[in-house]
Amino acid sequence: MFRRRGRKPAGILVLVLMLSTLLAACGGGTSGGASGENKENGSAQQTEENTSTALTGTIEIDGSSTLHPLTEAVAEEFGAANPDVRIPIGTGGTGAGFKRFNNSEIAVSNASRPIKDSEAEEAKANGITYHEVLVAYDGLSVVVNPSNEFVDKLTVDELKKIYEPNSTVKTWADVREGWPAEEIKIYSPGTDHGTFDYFTEAINGEAQASRNDSQITFSADTNAVVQGVAGDKNSIGYFGFSFYEENQDKLKLVPIDNGTATVAPSMETIKDNSYAPLSRPLLLYVNDKELERPEVSAFMNFYLENAASLAGEVGFVPLQDDQYKAEKDKLAK
Amino acid sequence: MNKTSPVAVNTKSMTFRRSKTRISDKIIPILLGLCALLSVFTTIGIVYTLLQESVIFFKEVPVWSFLTGTTWSPILPPKEFGVLPLLGGTLLITGIAILFAVPIGLACAIYLNEYAPARVRGVVKPVLEVLAGVPTIVYGYFALETVTPFLQKIFPNMGIFNALSAGIVVGIMVLPMISSLSEDAMRAVPKSLRHGAYALGATRFEVALKIVLPAALSGVVSSFVLAFSRAIGETMIVTVAAGATPQLTLNPLESIQTMTSYIVQVSMGDVPRGTIEYGTIFAVGLTLFVITFLLNILAQWVARRFREEY
């Protein structure tokens, strides 16, 4: 008797456990994916903002990992003022961003190069119209390991020798006479990064044209390029200026000789265009249909109002004030 | 009468309970069976997806050139789809891991089983098993930030991304698998065998090596094979620490790429669906699946073949 009484709840317990696991498995999908970062600091400004507008919704963003720090900084500020708007931002690379943009999966695409003709055609074929917004400038920074003492500068031709398709450069001695015959470890951002497209076009003359052998490592994650250059004595790599700014102590910046002058990337040289040919525009592409949503247009205007002050913080060069105004006017059309 | 009435109530409630028990007796096996079926269907689903997407790939690239090609360059021209560099990278990592984990794991098992006092064993075994619960991404950064800088002091020309460091850390990861399963197998060897050997004047080491180990061989060897197939499928450690340079090399100081880290790399990118580049993910995944599947069959065969019955 007593035993029996003990056993029955056990049977029920098993059933309950099974059901709850099933339920948990079903319900799991809906609760995930929310990024809570926008909720912070919300309460302070909430009272003030709530009187005018209470924006809600989700603004999906993906694309360039280079532009990501700026967009994230803007989204954080925007989220502080509008705690009910969620802004998940991916870093799949500019190409990946446009792919999702053209599938209408995201509202805004971060881009570290202008949209390609093929991508624009795809958007057109899918019935997507968009606005292109310039938000800042960046200088692609070429770096070597800090223990490297012989590289004082590189010419555009030497860079090309290292990175061009079928390159014959094996050691530093192949780049310039007198440099040590140590094998170069070459790093590059992955092939779907706007940084890769921009660099190959500026240096090798054609986007996506690059050496492709066991001496070069492509990393889908730009931080892996930083780790590689910082960890390998005979390394070379390149990425957006902000990645250099964040890791200055682990890297040595290489000035680039473009034939007329030898210039290292900095706020000033990127701004006055003297850091050529490796300075580039950073752009946002926003889907027109999404732009009609009040939270998206509010975010885009907020972006252009705050980019000037935030760009410097994350290592980019802001536009002139009247340029931002012009971009805002473009958006309103 | 006073005494019979509670009995009557009890019988009544008992029959009531019984009928309930019968229902649950019918439902529970069905629920359990459904759970078992779920895992079967999952496997079928995985195989189906892998095959379906790989077929598209193998229409463009002949299986033979995929399996024998020595250059892997699926994204940038000139495009070549030879899986050998990825397979070589995977086997190099796995080889290093097994070379590292087998002797140490076996030594751990022998120590715990034959030498360690019960109290030491009670502490060491759970601690070893904690190693198996460390998230592999943590192992990955352990390899990159701790093991690699240490190894670079020994091999100054070694790159930051290399097969050796990743292989060793994969070895650390599968170590508890080998030590724990081997220890269980050795523990199952009957005491009488040991006592017999001691009676003949054998030392502890002789008992461990010549009596217990051969008797537990089926369990020990299948623990090796399981560790091997776990190491082959390891993803995060190699993605973080081994680099992304598909090349056919036996030099553990070089950066390589494994099948798993290739899949990670391509999935992170923007390869469009339905293209041949997208198909590579599934072709490589299928190759990986076939290898681990064969290894698991091998493990079962080994366990049966070398089983000693007492």
Automatic annotation (TrEMBL), chain B:
| Any one cellular-component term (Gene Ontology) | plasma membrane
Which locations, inside or outside the cell, does it occupy? Answer: Cell membrane; Membrane
Q: Which molecular-function annotation in GO is an example for this chain?
A: phosphate transmembrane transporter activity
**UniProt-listed Pfam families:** BPD_transp_1 (PF00528)
List residues of the ABC transmembrane type-1 domain: 87-299
- The domain of life is Bacteria
Q: Where are the transmembrane segments?
A: 27-51, 86-111, 123-142, 154-178, 207-228, 278-299
GO BP annotations, alphabetical order: phosphate ion transport
- Ribosomal protein found in the keyword field: no
Mind telling me which InterPro entries this protein's record contains?
Answer: MetI-like (IPR000515), MetI-like_sf (IPR035906), Phosphate_PstC (IPR011864)
Q: Which UniProt keywords apply?
A: Cell membrane, Membrane, Phosphate transport, Transmembrane, Transmembrane helix, Transport
Major localisation: membrane
Q: How does it sit in the membrane?
A: Multi-pass membrane protein
Q: Which family does it belong to?
A: Belongs to the binding-protein-dependent transport system permease family. CysTW subfamily.
Provide the function of this protein: Part of the binding-protein-dependent transport system for phosphate; probably responsible for the translocation of the substrate across the membrane.
Q: What is this protein called?
A: Phosphate transport system permease protein
Q: Provide the species name.
A: Paenibacillus lautus (Bacillus lautus)
